[in-house]
Amino acid sequence: MKVLLVDDEQDFRDTLAKRLARRGIEAETAPGAAEALAWLGRNPGADAVVLDVKMPGMDGIEALKHIAASYPGVAVLMLSGHAHVETAMKGLELGAFDYLMKPVDIEELVFKLQDACEHKALKGRA
Description:
Oligomer: single chain
Strand order of the largest sheet: 2-1-3-4-5
CATH architecture: 3-Layer(aba) Sandwich
CATH superfamily: Response regulator
Mean pLDDT: 91
Low-confidence stretches: none
CATH topology: Rossmann fold
């Protein structure tokens, strides 16, 4: 599984990437939406993106729109430190696979990533 972690908090990105790597998940990181979109353009085999909602510049919802339009095979999990039902619903309406709250439980994140990749594989076979 190849995952891109997008968050403006470097310590959070690095820690999460290490924790996912220990569980056999290849995790790359990007500090913002523009870098994430460029990375996706260079890495067409990405399985999933874990995308922070609140970031400077282009926020997660705007980035989700671009990812859904340009990379429809990539599952997106939205991540937020702020509980806003409206934002979660908007993300899901725009094609996010799921919405998780920070601090994210690593086992829950791994489960959601596996679920998203299985869903992607099933969708690809349909």
